[in-house]
Amino acid sequence: MTFKVDFKVRDYECDLQGIVNNSVYFNYLEHARHEFLAYKDIDFAALAEQKINLVVIRSEMNYKDSLRPGDEFYVEVEAQKESKLRFAFYQKVIRKHDQKLMLDAVVTGTSVNERGRPFLHQEIERLFS
Amino acid sequence: MTFKVDFKVRDYECDLQGIVNNSVYFNYLEHARHEFLAYKDIDFAALAEQKINLVVIRSEMNYKDSLRPGDEFYVEVEAQKESKLRFAFYQKVIRKHDQKLMLDAVVTGTSVNERGRPFLHQEIERLFS
Amino acid sequence: MTFKVDFKVRDYECDLQGIVNNSVYFNYLEHARHEFLAYKDIDFAALAEQKINLVVIRSEMNYKDSLRPGDEFYVEVEAQKESKLRFAFYQKVIRKHDQKLMLDAVVTGTSVNERGRPFLHQEIERLFS
Amino acid sequence: MTFKVDFKVRDYECDLQGIVNNSVYFNYLEHARHEFLAYKDIDFAALAEQKINLVVIRSEMNYKDSLRPGDEFYVEVEAQKESKLRFAFYQKVIRKHDQKLMLDAVVTGTSVNERGRPFLHQEIERLFS
């Protein structure tokens, strides 16, 4: 089963080209990842409070087509362990009415402690269970 | 000579981890690219008015370290023609006080007309002159 | 009947204080207004395409309490004609789990044509029907 | 002497109407206030780290005209003590090339401690010195 989060484009997310601004896709992907974490009982904000920060170290995004005002879409999330300290999220943005792929992305993250050193909190192990 | 734009982190760009949110780097990179276009006498907003849209088709970003409230930094831009219809921007985000590389990125773009078809306006040729 | 739109706080909307940034409430209010317009069959983006722009001329916002990561809430919208060319939106942000009022606002708008002159498109009359 | 911060509109701040989105003025005003605080040796982010939060309780904004792509402008800040626990910021957004007033605003704030109770840190007294 692939994890999905539903969205609808909000007008303020569109730029002077009349389409969703490129940076906003990062917001969509992040929100979908955090909902996925919550689903796995991992609380991003609570971890941040404890100074354990999940951070992105690399993103690759392929923009296939542009979302427009009012478009409904969903974001898919799949997680995969890359190494002891790295995990990758495979994400797709799909427009609802025609199931068109708008963007696909791979976002690689790790977990760091207060001093910015790699640190895999056991809570994060749940990501792959 | 490498084109550079100066920035300073604004508090509202920081998220609950107390660091600049990942999506905001995309804003920084975009603003630097548009300043670079302006320097080459290419007006992104005016082209959009004419329904000629410069669009990003791929981005690769490597996050090396996190910008924090008040940090001063600059963004470098170098453009390279990839094919008849594609151009790549090589971009770096450098923190000023210690010249530390915070992020490097390759952003690939193209130019499309009103119907979303590839169309290289002659104005854009200036990018490589 | 009061028009309502459901929302959930997204982590990227929170700032370094760990709460939703003040500017984001403007986004929430705007999105709720545009959904209200759509419900009244007024298409903000399509009007903008025709160079008829609905613009805000004044906002008053009272911040009562702060939304936090994961909070679910809704935004209420009521519209009232203020004069021939002005309309006011009375808006409230209400946290779901305890029905607490987080923010109330009055946003006054008008409609302008291509040259920025007041112009009340008949489509907008629907707002008060 | 009135405190001023220089800005230039960035294209990503513009929405599908081709003008700066209303919510973005709140970002501009906030950044100018925080620069003003820094000038008075008050560190907003450091206070937030100590769980002392400067919060906005009311904003009134009058939108006079719209900033457009590439516009240069500055934001003025004047602070005034309203009561023992409240302070008001009088702010103006002025377009540079013709000194046109684009927006004026009054933003009222207070300071709260970890439990959200009013608490005026002595550092904040500097605001009025």
Assembly status: homotetramer
Mean pLDDT of chain A: 93
Provide the helix percentage of chain A.
10-25%
CATH class of chain A: Alpha Beta
Instruction: Give the number of helices of chain A.
Output: 3
* Helix and strand pattern of chain A: EHHEEEEH
What is the CATH-assigned architecture of chain A?
Roll
CATH-level-4 superfamily name of chain A: Hotdog Thioesterase
**Unreliable spans of chain A:** none
- Structural class of chain A, by secondary structure, is alpha+beta
**CA distance, first residue to last residue of chain A:** 13 Å
Biggest sheet descriptor of chain A: 5 strands, antiparallel
Radius of gyration of chain A: 15 Å
Spatial strand arrangement across the major sheet of chain A: 1-3-4-5-2
Quote the CATH topology of chain A. Thiol Ester Dehydrase, Chain A
Protein chain pair with the most extensive contact, residues per chain: A-B, 26 and 25 residues
Descriptive overview:
The structure is a homotetramer of 129-residue chains. Chain A is of the alpha+beta class. Chain A has one domain (3-128): Hotdog Thioesterase (Thiol Ester Dehydrase, Chain A), CATH 3.10.129.10. Chain A is built from 3 helices and 5 strands. Chain A has a 5-stranded antiparallel beta sheet with strand order 1-3-4-5-2. In chain A, a hairpin with a 5-residue loop joins strand 4 and strand 5. The longest helix of chain A has 18 residues, at 22-39. The first copy, chain A, is elongated, with a radius of gyration of 15 Å. The model of chain A has no long low-confidence stretch (mean pLDDT 93). Chains in contact: A-B, A-C, A-D, B-C, B-D, C-D. Strand 2 (53-63) of chain A pairs antiparallel with strand 2 of chain B, so a sheet runs across the interface.
